[in-house]
Write a structure and sequence with these properties.
The complex is a heterodimer. Chain A is an alpha/beta fold. Helix content of chain A is 28%, strand content 25%. Chain A has a 6-stranded mixed sheet with strand order 4-3-2-1-13-14, with helices on one face. In chain A, strands 5-6-7-10-12-11 form a 6-stranded mixed sheet, with no helix packed on it. In chain A, strands 15-16-17 form a 3-stranded parallel sheet. The chains are: A alpha/beta, B alpha+beta.
Chain lengths: 412, 730
C-alpha cells in the first residue's frame, strides 16, 4: 500500500511585524517569509505530496495584506493544478471569523478549512483511492481556551489517519513563550489512535511525543532574534503500519542566530576583538546560501569597554563582524561590557566610590532609600510610578556602572 | 615638599636673577612694590603646575623688557628628604624637566608628580593666598574644595562627583524630559512612532486602494482584451470591405442597369441603331414594293397580250381556246389581285393556268398556242418574281414587326407604352419616337453592362472568388458589410475602439504605475515591525534615563554620606585653627545648608548658642581669620598622606592688627613645623614683627629698576646664617 505523504507546516504568520532596526532587513525578512512559503509549496509539488497540512496561524492577523492574499491563492492554485489538497486548521492569529477578509476569500476547491472547534474528517485521495484521512479542528475566535484535542473522535483504522490542530501542549519546550490557547496534554493524543498529530502554535520545532507521533513543525521563517536556527516544514510519510517517518526540511532563506559572549579580556583592539568573536561564533555555516542575521550581546569586563561605549565603534565592529562572519546583519549590543574593575578592591578603599558601591548593595533591600533616590516621575513606566519589577531592573548591576562612571578612564 | 631655591632666569620683570634660597619652615620675605613678590608667587604655580596659558603670546610673565623666553628653575626637597630639580621654559612649545633620583622626566607642561593631588586652581585658591583671598569661600568654591577633599581623601583616581552627576543628568535629559522641552531622544522617537502610525494608517488605506485598483486593472485588462479582439474583427471587416465593397458596388450598379434594361432578350435583339434600321427596312420595303409595282405593270402588259390572244382565239378555235382563256383569265384575276392574294393562291392559279396550257399544248403547232405558252412562261416568271418580292416584303415587314415588338416591349419596361405602328411617310409619331428613344437608351445601357462586365473580368483576375465571397456574405444577411458607406462606418467604429483601447491602455499603465509606486512603499508588516523597534527603543531610552538619574542620585548620596563622614575632620581642624587664631573668641566652624540647598560656612562664638554665618556683618579681620583657619585645615586635609606643599601668604596679613598677627604667627609657627611657609610683604614693620613673632629673620627681595632693560631681584639677608645671598647675575 502506498504511504500517505504530506507536508506539515505551521505558524507561517504572513504579514507578521518584522522587528529589525534596519528597513532593508525588515524588507528582506518579509520576502524571506514569502520565499519560505513558496518553497514549501515547491516541495509538496516536487515530492508529489498527497496533501499540505497547515496547523494554524497562516496569517498574523485578520488584516490580510493584498500581497499575501495573492501569494496564498497563487500557491494554492499551483497545488490544485498538481492535484494536491490543502488542509488548513485555523489558529489564534487567523481564527475562523467568517467576517474576516481572510475567510471571505474565494478559496480554490482543493482547500479544506477547519475553522471551528468541531472536528471534521477529510479523506485524501490519490488516483481515486483514499490514501489518508485528516481530522482537524480550528479556532473559531482569537482566544480559544478549551482543550480541542480532547474533543477529537477516535481515529479510523486501516488507512493512515492524521490529526491537525493548533494547540499549546503545555509540556512542550518553549510553550510558555506562547499564550495558552487550546491547551492540551500528551495524554490527550495518546487515547485517540491517530498515526500522527500535526500541531501548530509553538514556534520551536519539536517532537512532543513519539507514540503516537506528535510534532510541532515550528514556524517557517524566524521573525526575530528569539526564533533562532533553521526553520522550515516537516515532510511526513505514514506507511501501512501507521509508523510516521518525519523529516525536517529547512526552507527559511534567513536564519537568526543569538550569541551571548563574554567580551574577551585579552582583546585590546577592535581587530583582536573581531578575531576572538569570530573564533567563538564559528559554527558551520549553511552551504545553501541561507543568510544569517545575528544578535550578539557582549558583556563582562574588557579593556575595550571605553571604546565600546562609543556607538561609532560599535557600528564599526558590527560591520567588521558582518563581513567576517558572512552575516546579512548583526544587531550588536555592547552595553553590557564593563571596564575590568576589581569591585572588591574598590569597595575596600575608603572613597566616594566605595560609599556608592555600598549604597548599590543596600539599595535593593532598602525600599525607603530606593524610593528617595529613584527619579520621579519615572520615564519607563506607563504612569511614571515605580513597580517592583521595574525597580528590580533599574538597580541591577548598578555597581559596575557606578564604578565605571566615577573612575577616570585609564586608571582602573 | 619644599623649594630649596628658585631661580627666575627670565620671568616677567625678573631677568637672570640669582637663585633665591628658601628655608625649610618659615620664610619672611620683604619686598617693596615692584620687587617681584607677585612674580615669585606666580613662579611657584608655574614651577609646580606648568605654564598657564601655555602660549608664549598669551603668557602674562613673558619677560616684559627683553626678548627672552620665560624660564624658571628650582631645586626642591621632597618630604622624604630626597632632592629634585625642576626646570621649565616656554618657547613655541612649553618645555619642562623634572629630575629626581637621577631620573629625568620630560614634563612638557604637566604638573610635577608631587602635586598631583591638587589642581592649579585649588593650589592658587588654598596655598597661595593674597589679602583678597582671605575670605570665607563662596558656596561654589566651598563645594569645589569639599569635592576635592572628598576625592583627595582617597587614593583612587576619581572624577569629581559634580562632573559625573552633571554628565549623568545631561545624559538623562538627552534621553527623556518630564517637561518635554528640547528634543530628548524619547520625544524624537515618539515623533517617529507618530509618523510610523500615520504611515501605517496610510498603508491600511493603500491596501483597500490596491485591492480596488487591482480589480479595476483586471477589469480594464479584460475590457482591453475584448476590445483588441473587436478591433481585430473590425480590421478584418475593413480589409474585406476594401477588397470587396468597390466590386460589390459596381456589381450593384450593373444589377441596377440590368433591372433598368428589363427584358434582356428583347434588348439584345434590338438593332444597334433602331431608327436607322427601321429606316433602312423602310427603304428596302419601298424598293420591293416598287419592284412589285413594276411586276404588276408587266403582268398588266401580259394581260393585255392575253386579251389580244383571247381575241384571236375566239376567232379560231372557240372551245379549246375557251378553256385556255378561262385559265388565262384566272391567271389574270389571280395576278390582278396579286397585291392581296397569297402566294399559294397565285401558285394555284398559275398551276391551273399551266395545266390549261399543257392541255392546249396537245395542239402543237398551233401558233396561238405557242404564244400562249410564251405568255404562260412569262407569267410564271412574273409569278416567281412577284412571289420573291412579296416574300421579301414579308420578311422586311416581319423584321420591322420584330423590331417594333421589341421596341414596344423594351419601351413598356421603361414606362413608355406604345401600341401603335410606325407612321408612314413623313408623319411624325411622338410616342413612337419616345418608345424608340427609350429602347435605344436601354440598348445603350445593355452595351454598357457588357462593357463593365468585361472591365470587371479584366480588373479582377480572382473575380469569381470575390463574387463567391460577396454572394456568401449576402446570402448570410451580411450585405451591410459591403455597403458603400460600410468602410467609413467601419473606420469610424475602428477609430472609436482604438481610442477606447488607448484609454484602457493608459488606464492600465496608470494603475500599474500607481501599484508599482505603492509596491515600493514598505509593507504593513515592515512598518509594524519598525513600530515595535521604536517602541523598544523608547522603552530602552526611558530606562536609560531612569537609570542615569538613579546613578546620579546614588553617587550624590554617596558623596553626601562620605563628605559628612569626613567633613568632621576638616571642621575639627579648622575649628582648632580658628580657636587659636582668634584666641578662643570663636570656638568652632561648621557648614549648614541654606534655603537654596547651598552649604554655608558658619562659626560658633564663645558663649553664644547660635551659629553665625561667616559673612558680613562680621568684621573683615574676623572673616580673614575664619578664612585662614578654614584654608589651613583644608590644606592639611588635602596634603594628608601626601607631599605637603608650600604655603605662600602674599600680603595676606596686611589688614591684621598686632594681636591677630601675633596669634596667627603663633599658628603659622606650628604650621611651619610641617610645611614650608612663605610670608611676603612690602611692609617692613609687618615683616619685622612677624619675623620676631615667628622667630626668624627677614629677607628682603631686592629691586633694581634697570632703566627698563631688566629687573633683578635681590635679598638682603638680615639673618646671615645659612643663607646664600640672592643677587642678580648681571
Amino acid at each position: 500500500m502506498r504511504p500517505f505523504r504530506f507536508v506539515h507546516m505551521a505558524d507561517v504568520h504572513l504579514d507578521s511585524p518584522l522587528a529589525s532596526r534596519s528597513a532593508s532587513i525588515r524588507k528582506a525578512l518579509r520576502e524571506a517569509q514569502y520565499t519560505a512559503f513558496r518553497r514549501a509549496i515547491d516541495l509538496a509539488i516536487a515530492r508529489r505530496a498527497d496533501a499540505v497540512l497547515i496547523a494554524g496561524d497562516l496569517f498574523d492577523h485578520a488584516t490580510l495584506s493584498f500581497r499575501s492574499e495573492r501569494e496564498l491563492l497563487a500557491a494554492f492554485a499551483r497545488l490544485r493544478e498538481a492535484g494536491i489538497c490543502v488542509l488548513y486548521a485555523t489558529g489564534n492569529h487567523d481564527p475562523g471569523d467568517p467576517a474576516a477578509r481572510v475567510h471571505r476569500l474565494s478559496w480554490p476547491d482543493n482547500v479544506v478549512r477547519f475553522v471551528d472547534a468541531t472536528p471534521r474528517t477529510h479523506s485524501v485521495e490519490c488516483e481515486g483511492r483514499v490514501v489518508g484521512r485528516v481530522t482537524g479542528a480550528g479556532h473559531a475566535h482569537g482566544a480559544e481556551t478549551r482543550n480541542l484535542a480532547a474533543a477529537f473522535p477516535p481515529a479510523q483504522a486501516g488507512i493512515p489517519h492524521v490529526a491537525l490542530l493548533h494547540t499549546q501542549v503545555v509540556s512542550a519546550a518553549e510553550a510558555q513563550r506562547h499564550l495558552p490557547y487550546a491547551p492540551s496534554t500528551v495524554p490527550d493524543f495518546e487515547a485517540k489512535g491517530f498515526d500522527y498529530w500535526a500541531l501548530g502554535h509553538v514556534h520551536a520545532r519539536q517532537a512532543v511525543a513519539s507514540e503516537p507521533a506528535v510534532h510541532y513543525a515550528g514556524n517557517i521563517q524566524g521573525r526575530d532574534p528569539s526564533e533562532t536556527g533553521p526553520k522550515g516544514v516537516l515532510w511526513v510519510e505514514i506507511g501501512a503500519g501507521g509508523a510516521a517517518e518525519v523529516e525536517f526540511v529547512p526552507l527559511a532563506p534567513i536564519v537568526w542566530e543569538t550569541w551571548e559572549l563574554p567580551c574577551p579580556p585579552q582583546a585590546h583592539t577592535l581587530n583582536e576583538l573581531v578575531a576572538a568573536i569570530v573564533s567563538a561564533t564559528e559554527i558551520p555555516r549553511p552551504a545553501d546560501g541561507t543568510g544569517r542575521i545575528a544578535r550578539l550581546r557582549l558583556f563582562g569586563p574588557s579593556p575595550l569597554a571605553f571604546a565600546l561605549s562609543d556607538p561609532v565603534n560599535v557600528d564599526e565592529l558590527a560591520e567588521l563582524l558582518c563581513e567576517r562572519l558572512d552575516l546579512v546583519d548583526v544587531e550588536l549590543s555592547a552595553s553590557g561590557v564593563t571596564r575590568p574593575l576589581d569591585l572588591g578592591g574598590l569597595r575596600a578603599e575608603p572613597s566616594v566610590l566605595s560609599q556608592a558601591l555600598a549604597l548599590c548593595e543596600t539599595l535593593a533591600g532598602d525600599p525607603e532609600l530606593l524610593a528617595r533616590l529613584v527619579p520621579t516621575p519615572l520615564a519607563g513606566t506607563p504612569d511614571g510610578r515605580p513597580t517592583d519589577e521595574y525597580l528590580t531592573r533599574l538597580v541591577a548591576e548598578l555597581d559596575l556602572e557606578v564604578a565605571t562612571r566615577l573612575l577616570r578612564e585609564g586608571n582602573p | 615638599m619644599r623649594i630649596r631655591s628658585i631661580r627666575m632666569v627670565a620671568y616677567g620683570g625678573v631677568i637672570d636673577a640669582a637663585p633665591l634660597p628658601l628655608q625649610r619652615g618659615l620664610n619672611v620675605l620683604l619686598g617693596e612694590n615692584e620687587a617681584g613678590k607677585s612674580t615669585l608667587v606666580h613662579a611657584f604655580s608655574t614651577l609646580l603646575f606648568g605654564f598657564s596659558p601655555a602660549r608664549l603670546d598669551a603668557f602674562p610673565y613673558r619677560p616684559w623688557y627683553v626678548d627672552r623666553y620665560p624660564e624658571i628653575e628650582a631645586e626642591i626637597e621632597l618630604d622624604d628628604g630626597t632632592g629634585a630639580e625642576l626646570h621649565r621654559k616656554l618657547q613655541s612649545e612649553p618645555q619642562g624637566t623634572y629630575t629626581a633620583a637621577g631620573l629625568l622626566t620630560q614634563l612638557r607642561n604637566r604638573p610635577i608628580e608631587p602635586v598631583h593631588h591638587v589642581t592649579r586652581q585649588l593650589y592658587e585658591a588654598l596655598y597661595a593666598l593674597a589679602a583678597d583671598d582671605l575670605k570665607p569661600p563662596p558656596p561654589d568654591q566651598a563645594r569645589s574644595i569639599e569635592e576635592r577633599l572628598t576625592l583627595g581623601l582617597s587614593a583612587l583616581p576619581l572624577r569629581p562627583v559634580s562632573e559625573v552627576v552633571a554628565e549623568l543628568n545631561a545624559e538623562a535629559a538627552r534621553e527623556w524630559r518630564a517637561d518635554e522641552r528640547g528634543k530628548p531622544r524619547v520625544k524624537q522617537l515618539r515623533e517617529r512612532l507618530r509618523q510610523n502610525r500615520a504611515l501605517r494608517r496610510e498603508l491600511l488605506q493603500d491596501e483597500e486602494r490596491t485591492r480596488a485598483e487591482h480589480d479595476r486593472l483586471d477589469e480594464a485588462a479584460a475590457a482591453l482584451e475584448r476590445i483588441e479582439a473587436h478591433i481585430e474583427r473590425l480590421q478584418a471587416d475593413l480589409q474585406r470591405w476594401e477588397r470587396l465593397a468597390p466590386l460589390a458596388s459596381r456589381l450593384d450598379r450593373i444589377e441596377e442597369w440590368r433591372a433598368a434594361v428589363g427584358d434582356e432578350a428583347a434588348v439584345t435583339q434590338l438593332p444597334e441603331d433602331i431608327r436607322g434600321r427601321l429606316d433602312e427596312l423602310e427603304g428596302v420595303l419601298r424598293a420591293e414594293e416598287g419592284h412589285l409595282e413594276r411586276q404588276w405593270a408587266e403582268i398588266e402588259a401580259a394581260d393585255a397580250e392575253r386579251v389580244a390572244l383571247l381575241a384571236k382565239q375566239e376567232r379560231g378555235r372557240p372551245l379549246r381556246w375557251l378553256v385556255a382563256s378561262v385559265a388565262l383569265l384566272m391567271v389574270g384575276v389571280a395576278l390582278g389581285v396579286a397585291g392581296s392574294l397569297s402566294s399559294a393562291a397565285i401558285a394555284a392559279s398559275v398551276a391551273l393556268a399551266s395545266a390549261a396550257m399543257a392541255a392546249l399544248g396537245q395542239r402543237r403547232g398551233i401558233a396561238a398556242g405557242r404564244r400562249a405558252e410564251a405568255a404562260v412562261g412569262r407569267l410564271r416568271a412574273m409569278r416567281h418574281s412577284a412571289e420573291d418580292a412579296k416574300r421579301r416584303i414579308n420578311e422586311i415587314e416581319t423584321a420591322r414587326e420584330a423590331i417594333l415588338r421589341n421596341v414596344q416591349q423594351v419601351a413598356a419596361t421603361a414606362g413608355v407604352p406604345w401600341q401603335g405602328s410606325l407612321p408612314q411617310g413623313v408623319q411624325v409619331d411622338v410616342q413612337a419616337d419616345k418608345a424608340i428613344a427609350a429602347a435605344a437608351q436601354r440598348k445603350r445601357l445593355w452595351a454598357r453592362i457588357l462593357e463593365h462586365e468585361q472591365q470587371l473580368a479584366e480588373e479582377y483576375p480572382d473575380l469569381d472568388r470575390r463574387l463567391e465571397e460577396i454572394y456568401a456574405l449576402r446570402s448570410k444577411g451580411m450585405a451591410a458589410l459591403l455597403a458603400p458607406d460600410g468602410g467609413a462606418d467601419l473606420s469610424r467604429r475602428l477609430g472609436e475602439l482604438q481610442q477606447e483601447r488607448e484609454r484602457l491602455q493608459h488606464q492600465i499603465w496608470t494603475l500599474q504605475e500607481r501599484l508599482r509606486h505603492r509596491g515600493e512603499k514598505p509593507s504593513l508588516s515592515e512598518v509594524e515591525g519598525e513600530a515595535s523597534v521604536i517602541e523598544a527603543e523608547i522603552g530602552a531610552a526611558a530606562f536609560r534615563r531612569d537609570r542615569m538619574l538613579l546613578l546620579s542620585a546614588v553617587i550624590s548620596e554617596a558623596e553626601r554620606r562620605f563628605r559628612e563622614r569626613h567633613r568632621s575632620d576638616v571642621l575639627r581642624r579648622s575649628s582648632a585653627y580658628l580657636r587659636r587664631i582668634t584666641r578662643g573668641r570663636y570656638t568652632a566652624m561648621d557648614f549648614v545648608a541654606d534655603s537654596g540647598g547651598d552649604q554655608r560656612l558658619v562659626v560658633m562664638r564663645a558663649g553664644m548658642p547660635d551659629p553665625i554665618p561667616a559673612a558680613r556683618p562680621l568684621s573683615r579681620g574676623t572673616l580673614d581669620q575664619i578664612a585662614l583657619a578654614y584654608r589651613l585645615a583644608v590644606v592639611d586635609s588635602l596634603d594628608a598622606g601626601r607631599e605637603r606643599l608650600p604655603i605662600l601668604l602674599d600680603e595676606a596679613l596686611v589688614h591684621w592688627d598686632d594681636a591677630r598677627l601675633q596669634a596667627v604667627c603663633h599658628v603659622l609657627t606650628q604650621v611651619a613645623a610641617e610645611r614650608q611657609v612663605l610670608l611676603l610683604t612690602a611692609r617692613r614693620d609687618t615683616a619685622e614683627r612677624a619675623a620676631a613673632w615667628l622667630g626668624t629673620g627677614v629677607r628682603q627681595l631686592g629691586t633694581t629698576a634697570g632703566s627698563g632693560s631688566a629687573e633683578t631681584g635681590q635679598v638682603k639677608d638680615d639673618e646671615p646664617s645659612g643663607h646664600l645671598p640672592y643677587v642678580p647675575r648681571l
